[in-house]
Every structure is written in C-alpha cells, then in structure tokens.
Design a protein that fits this description.
Bound molecules: adenosine-5'-triphosphate
Shape: globular
Distance between the termini: 59 Å
GO molecular function: ATP binding
Region (Disordered): 287-308
Protein name: ABC transporter ATP-binding protein
Number of helices: 11
Radius of gyration: 23 Å
Strand order of the largest sheet: 5-6-7-3-8-9
CATH topology of the largest domain: Rossmann fold
Largest sheet: 6 strands, mixed
InterPro entries: ABC_transporter-like_ATP-bd, P-loop_NTPase
Number of domains: 2
Domain ABC transporter: 5-230
Length: 308
C-alpha cells in the first residue's frame, strides 16, 4: 500500500457544527476513490483540508508525506475541481486554461482543446456568462487536462446533462488508463459512478463509516429474487435492507453474504442472487443514524407511557 494522502484524527469545527470528527483515512496512489455521503456529511470540508484551502481544528494532514499548506512542493501536484470555482472577471475558457497551464506542470494543452470541442465549450463567451453546465465543463476539463498526481472532483457534474456526464466518465477512465493518478470523486449520483471507482470512503455526520475496496462490498449484502415463500425461507432472521413483493414474487435485499449451503439451497429453490448496488448499501449505512434516533424516540415514548 502506498498512501499519497494521510489524514490522521482530523477534526474541523465551525462554531457549533463539527464538520469532521476525528477523521482518519488514507488515499492510495493511482486509485480512483469515491468520496460519498449525504448533504453536510463533511466531504467538501475534508477535500478543502487536503488541498490546503482550510485548516483543521486539530489533527494532521499530509500529502506526499508533507503538510500541504503553503507548500510549493505539494500544491502544484494537486488539482481541486469544485462547483463554485471563481475565475477572474472577463475570463474566457482559453484564459482559464492558460492559468491552469502555468499552475500544473503536467498540463496537456492539446487534450484541453480536444475536451473543449467534445464538451462544446463556447470559445468566445466569458465564463461568467456561460450556462451552469458549460461552466462545469470548464472545471472538468481543467481537472482532466491538469493530469495532477492528485485530483479532486467535488460534484463536478452540476448542470452537466446526461450526455456530458457520460463524456466526462468516458474521458476520465480512458485518460486514467494512460496516465494513472490518484483521483477522488465526490458525487451523489452513486449508481452512475459505481463502475468508475475502485475504493469507497463514506462519510456520515463527519465520521468515516466505510473505507473499503469496491470489490469487497459485494459480500456485504445480497438481493434474492424469486417465489416469495422461497425468498422468505432464506432471508428469515436476517437484516432486511429492502423488500418488494409483486404478487407471488419477492425481491429482498439482506445484509451479509450467503454461505455455500445457502447458495445451494437458493439454487434448489430457483432463486436469482444479485449483488447489492453501491447506492443501496450507502443508503443503508447512512440512514442508520436516523433509524437509531427513531428507535431512541420510540424507547423514550414507551418509557413515558410505562411511568404514566
Ligand atoms: N465555512 C463554514 N462555516 C460554517 N459551517 C460550515 C462551513 N463549511 C461547512 N460547514 C458545515 O459543515 C458541515 C459539512 O459541510 P460540507 O460542505 O463539508 O458537507 P458535504 O458533505 O460536502 O455536503 P454536500 O453534499 O451538501 O455538498 C455542514 O453542516 C456545513 O454546514
């Protein structure tokens, strides 16, 4: 393992909000990571710490083994693409690309121009006057053509239509295959990016709740589809993540994998076994807190009823 980013016990407080709560996580060299979590989970805050745009309240961040803040050895090797990127007044896409060419030593101008044509970024329009999707495309192009050793894309798709998003995913994968680098992609469109990412870091309320290679997630849950009574037999007593019944057919997703005996039985019962989607797993893992609160509320209510 070769971590290019090491985050150790990082906490970030904003007055009464704890955006990150003792987060420790590593991002490995030349791996595409998905940084996932609900709104307000702390994803942008974590990326801002690593890219030296913010300071942690406590804890330690190292990139390439060094502290990134005001570090000229580190900063040109990091690119952070975010929605609210500010560009200088009157700048056109070509000006933004020229600035990026100065900032990033591995910048590929030809690639940037090819991407600008692919995304149909208007040449003459000022970035300020561009549509939201066109502005996002400028950011995405800078992220790709910078070829920075560490590149963060923080929800880069805002305003991009489905065709442009697909273009981004295709170009990202193709360019990554030729120029491997560390990529961290934050997105709410989990199913859309699931095939791109090799490792998932999931934040919930400022804490890491999952930090795992995508391959391993397959064993975390399974979906059984078939006759309702047969599905019921194999899912009895297990934690159900999702259940749908359609007439005599059921589709049930349960936590945990099936052992060899259970798989054989599923075959005998003519059940289909499907891997769980990343989206389903993320929803399950990040709604736990609410489930817990609801449970606590219920318990308090019961207690009041009993003592009344
Ligand atoms: N500058 C700030 N001042 C005060 N609170 C902040 C600041 N930046 C972030 N926060 C708070 O920290 C928490 C985490 O915010 P953050 O932007 O990191 O979440 P996120 O996971 O990126 O969310 P989203 O998916 O909605 O973009 C939120 O509760 C947010 O309100």
């Amino acid at each position: 393992m070769n971590a290019v980013i090491e985050v150790d016990g990082v906490t970030r407080r904003y007055r009464s909000t704890t955006a990150l709560d003792a987060v420790s996580v590593r991002f490995e060299k030349d791996v595409i990571h998905g940084l996932l979590g609900r709104n307000g989970a702390g994803k942008t805050t974590l990326m801002s710490m690593i890219t030296a745009q913010e300071w942690p309240s406590s804890g330690d961040v190292r990139v390439f083994g060094q502290h990134p803040h005001e570090n000229e050895q580190v900063l040109p090797r990091i690119c952070f693409v975010r929605e609210e990127q500010q560009y200088i007044d009157d700048a056109r896409a070509s000006h933004a690309f020229a600035a990026a060419a100065m900032a990033f030593p591995r910048w590929d101008q030809e690639f940037a121009e090819q991407l600008a044509a692919d995304f149909k970024v208007p040449e003459k329009t000022r970035i300020k006057k561009m549509s939201r999707g066109q502005r996002s495309a400028v950011g995405v192009i800078i992220g790709l053509a910078s070829r920075a050793e560490v590149t963060f894309f923080d929800e880069p798709y805002m305003g991009l239509d489905a065709v442009a998003r697909q273009l981004f995913y295709d170009r990202l994968l193709a360019d990554y295959a030729e120029h491997p680098r560390t990529i961290v992609l934050s997105s709410h469109l989990i199913d859309e990016i699931a095939h791109l990412i090799e490792h998932v870091v999931l934040l919930d309320e400022g804490r890491v709740v999952l930090d795992e290679p995508v391959e391993q997630l397959r064993d975390r849950a399974v979906t059984l589809v078939g006759r309702a009574d047969a599905v019921g037999e194999l899912t009895a007593g297990r934690t159900v993540l999702q259940h749908e019944a359609m007439g005599r057919t059921a589709r049930t997703t349960v936590l945990g994998g099936l052992d060899d005996g259970e798989r054989r039985r599923a075959g005998e019962l003519d059940l289909d076994l499907l891997p769980v989607s990343l989206q389903q797993l993320v929803v399950h893992l990040t709604s736990k807190t609410e489930q817990h609160e609801q449970h606590e509320q219920h318990e308090r209510h019961e207690q009041r009823e009993r003592s009344a």
